[in-house]
Write a structure and sequence with these properties.
Order of helices and strands: HHHHHHEEEEEHEEHEHEHEHE
Shape: globular
Helix content: 25-40%
Largest sheet: 6 strands, antiparallel
Strand order of the largest sheet: 4-3-6-1-2-5
Number of strands: 11
């Protein structure tokens, strides 16, 4: 298998942009219509995930240690789509047909053999990962909605009770899907593990978001949702091993996983000083104030500061959460956790780095949105600092 040849050929194919996933899925569904039901009705997001996933796999094809773990996780996660071992050959056929279509005369017998071997390896590792996961967790849990509280016109707080215990760490994310949408979205519970197993989700309805809109506007007490295994560790307290005080910076519903960290600190007996800065575009968007103030009243080691991004008296000017925090004190002896929209996280990380905070003390999900694999994100921190806001 010629690694350089694989990378070069994929670079040429990826250059065709959106045409690549469109051709791939058209080929797959025409040849194997039975698999169409595994995918969401709206395929726009899925098309992006395919290209990003293939790009990641090809770019790391010569780094076996990194790639194997990634593929095992990907295979385990795909169980929630009801993907089985017998589906992989169909995907392989569609992939090879797509490559041949876009490479044209460049598609040689040798290159076909390289891609066949590479896909065979990828499929085997994913199938093995799925088989191993069967011994640990189900493909998904069924969770009943036991409370649904609209907090603003586009934010709701849901309490779910899984049919049986769904173990997770504060700061992790879980996949959520309404059976009617056949699409998944990852949300971070706003609570540490509870004895009754319930989960609290803070959901903002995203424009065009099939899952988030249904959760906010189309879900009621008694409804059932599907929940996928927890993923990610970048926002967990294990990233701040050894104790020490914390600074938590939240934008919008990015408050949810940071609230869970506060509960985790409390469950561990306190012992840390925790300062929280919560940002929103206006005062009316501080949707969880009552619950937050109960935490402040309960724990003397906790302090919360609310930051309104926009001042009506100063149109066009924005107050960043990170700027307010840096103006209030020197936090360089603390671990800093940041969660919110990509622009909010980008601005906060840039601001902290410029102020002398080192990478080892900054904890955040990488930017770019949660794409094809659980808890995996791409894209570098961008050099921009617009207004804060949550997108969880």
């Amino acid at each position: 298998m010629d690694v350089a040849r694989l990378k070069q050929s994929w670079h040429l194919v990826a250059g065709h942009g959106d045409q690549v996933p469109l051709y791939f899925y058209s080929t797959l569904f025409l040849a194997h219509p039975e698999v169409r039901q595994m995918f969401p009705t709206n395929m726009a997001g899925q098309r992006d995930r395919l290209v990003t996933a293939l790009g990641h796999i090809v770019s790391h094809v010569d780094q076996a240690d990194q790639l194997v773990g990634f593929l095992q996780s990907l295979g385990a996660d795909h169980r929630k789509f009801a993907v089985r071992a017998e589906h992989y050959p169909a995907v392989g056929e569609a992939l090879l047909a797509t490559l041949a279509h876009f490479l044209g005369e460049r598609w040689t017998e040798e290159l076909a053999q390289d891609w066949t071997a590479a896909y065979g390896l990828v499929a085997k590792v994913m199938v093995d990962g799925a088989a191993a996961a069967e011994n640990v967790s189900p493909p998904w849990w069924v969770g009943e909605v036991v409370a649904h509280e609209p907090r603003t016109f586009d934010i709701a707080v849901l309490t779910l009770r899984p049919q049986y215990l769904l173990p997770f760490e504060a700061g992790q994310s879980i996949g959520v899907s309404s059976p009617a949408t056949r699409a998944w979205r990852y949300y971070s519970p706003a609570n540490a593990a509870r004895t009754d197993g319930t989960l609290e989700l803070h959901v903002r309805a995203a424009p065009g978001g099939a899952v988030s809109s249904r959760l906010v506007y189309g879900t009621s007490v008694g409804d059932q949702l599907h929940l996928a295994a927890p993923v990610g560790e970048r926002l967990t307290l294990r990233r701040a091993a050894g104790g020490g005080d914390l600074l938590l910076l939240a934008g919008g519903t990015g408050w949810a996983p940071l609230k869970a960290l506060v509960e985790q600190v409390a469950a561990s007996g306190g012992g840390r000083r925790v300062d929280v800065y919560v940002g929103a575009r206006s005062r009316t968007e501080f949707y969880d104030v009552e619950a937050t103030e109960k935490l402040v009243a309960s724990y003397p080691w906790l302090r919360v500061t609310y930051v309104v991004n926009g001042d009506p008296a100063r149109p066009g000017e924005f107050v960043q959460v990170v700027d307010r925090a840096l103006a209030d004190g020197d936090w360089r002896n603390r671990h800093v956790f940041v969660c919110g929209s990509d622009p909010m996280v980008s601005g906060a990380v840039n601001g902290l780095t410029q102020a002398g905070y080192h990478a080892g003390q900054l904890h955040y999900e990488a930017l770019g949105g949660q794409w094809y694999s659980p808890g995996r994100r791409t894209a570098e921190v961008q050099e921009q600092r617009p207004a804060d806001g949550g997108t969880q």
